[in-house]
Amino acid sequence: MEQAGRVVWRQCAAQWRVKRRCSAALLQPGAVTSKVSPVGGRSSPLAPLCSALTRAASLSRGFTTHRPLCTGGRPCWSCQSAVGSSELFCPSCSCIQPPSEGRDYFQLLHCERSFIIDVQDLQRKYRNLQRLLHPDYFSRKSQREREISEKQSSLVNKAYNTLLSPLSRGIYLVSFYSIFT
């Protein structure tokens, strides 16, 4: 039984590393593609088990993890295929996805949850996200995609403006940690 647990954790860790590399590549300067697929366009059948193991391990240590190792996913609104909770676009049909519940501003902009942040890095990530999500790029898409784009873009703007100012960043951090402690 212990051997099976190790295998699952290795697979989860490998999946997390791939997602992390793809997220980092997406936020590099000049990365404006919307078709990045962290796990090759497939949802891992081990995702629910990995999520449960991650939660159990973090609870036994007395803290919550900054990023889950594996995400359970949600169905795409357009094609119903599995989409990771942190993915902006469906890997199957490339449709923009609605904002996921529970993502904080630091996760949205791929920043460390800390008061001290690199403002230039934050600006670069903000610009790259807006290149992907701005409603002007969805003018020829369906009404639903335009609405989702507006929501996503608005959320990115709000996150950026909150994290850009040291005062609002501090207030956000205090409110974030007072909720989860």
From TrEMBL:
Domain J: 104-176
GO CC term (a single one): mitochondrion
GO molecular function: ATPase activator activity; protein-folding chaperone binding
Cross-referenced CDD domains: DnaJ (cd06257)
Protein name, as recorded: J domain-containing protein
GO biological process: [2Fe-2S] cluster assembly
Organism: Eleutherodactylus coqui (Puerto Rican coqui)
Pfam families with a match to the protein in the record: DnaJ
Cross-referenced SUPFAM superfamilies: Chaperone J-domain
Matches recorded under InterPro entries: DnaJ_domain, HscB, J_dom_sf
